[in-house]
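Quick log. Single chain, no ligands specified.
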Amino acid sequence: MSVLVIGGDEITPIKAVLKNFGCEEITHWDGRRESVNHKDLPKNISCLVMLTNFLNHNTMKKFRNAAKKKEIPIICTKRSVSCLYCECMRVFGEDRKNCPFK
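-> predicted structure:
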């Protein structure tokens, strides 16, 4: 399965956590330029991760709404591996039954 990460410049530690959850393909958009707002969500993603300290409200709103329409799980977190891990556990549960990365 694949995940789209929006926000942040260097996400190597974030990728490690996502791979630990079983994610095979990680697409990253840094979100620094306004042009990211003109993109559409990729068709093959199974989860959207937004790193909130690097995104403005309009960008977050656009992609959150697009993910909700497609019923894609959304994780909003700071750019911290511990925050991401805790949020993944909260969204997918301790046993990860609902985790789309399996």
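The CA atoms of residues 88 and 100 lie 11 Å apart.
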